[in-house]
Amino acid sequence: MRKSSLYLIRNKYDRRRASSVINKITSPMPKEIIEWMKQFKTWNFDSFLLNELTSNNPLSFFMQYIYQAYTLDDKLDMDKKKFKAFFWEVQELYHKENPYHNAIHAADVAQAVFYFLEKGDVNLVWGLDLLETISSLIGAAVHDLDHPGLNNYYLVNTRCPLAVIYNDKSVLENYHVACAFNLMRDEKYDILSSLTQEWNKVSRSIIVQTVLGTDNAVHFQHLNSFKARKTASDYDPKTKDKIDSLTLILHSADLSNPTRPLDYSKKWTMRVLDEFFQQGDKERELGLPISNLWDRYSVNVAQSQIGFFDFFAKPFFSEVSESFPGMSFVIGNIELNVEYWKTQTKRCQKELEELIASKP
Ligand code: CMP
Ligand code: MG
Ligand code: ZN
Predict the structure, then answer these.
(1) What is the pLDDT of residues 165-175, one digit of tens each?
(2) Ligand 1 within 6 A of CB of 257
(3) What domain count does the chain have?
């Protein structure tokens, strides 16, 4: 398969534009951004502000910081030029026009993984090595690569070529990770090339498994197996349960918007629903069945969030954070955010009724 043929969704992808962006990477990172990026060690990290400060390059800047913070040149002999070039390309492959699944979300999720590992006590409890840490962060950075702003249901229902290739199973997640490794087939983006064959295999396996685990369709399967394994006599997150455990961390980061401070959490809510509703509009136009979850004429925004936060996010984070004292604060944040949405139910109902009344 030729390399470019994998970019099935990103038909607007322009390799020349990407190369011109790569040329800019020789310029050093501005000092004030380096100063500000100390924030990413806190849960108040503002990925929207990072996006502004870096002129829409949040992900590549974040990953450069990661490279420096973990001294990857020294410790893993990772080539700095390749690392920069790879994440510039990755960032370019995210769709700026998507309200939610864009490079800001990828940077936000990568920061959440970083936070959970370093401040949320995951590293402390599980004793991860650098290869496992960095592979988890790479997985986070590529986990929604080239996302079309439409979900698996849509791709499957419309028999999109990707759904056919992946036999309707975790279509997007398979695609995101394949896209990342396809990029690495080019020597100048092969960030794992300095690793021994064995380490390369380990890293690839972590990246593939953790990204596949971001499919919400396998959410309960992962949660239930984590619950069961956690109490098993042979449970060992340091060896045989490692990949499943890391999968849970990326999935937690991907679902972390209900746990962020209210201002940021609200922004993510409006963005994710905006993207859902655009999909619903498309389905309506095509005469496809629309799920109630993304039909703008049936969703009460506040109620949808109370449902998502209380019944989906909270039980999940309660289970995960039981193992990590440094993550337990997220439950309090979910509860505060749910309280906010409860105060908005009536307003959202009124807005919904007005929208229905004005429906063309
Ligand atoms: P994705 O980032 O691909 O994987 C996790 C999914 O959870 C995400 O896509 C959305 O489909 C869903 N999700 C995340 N945040 C919310 C939210 N606040 N409300 C509803 N769905 C959400
Ligand atoms: Mg995804
Ligand atoms: Zn995501």
Answers:
(1) 999 999 999 99
(2) yes
(3) 2
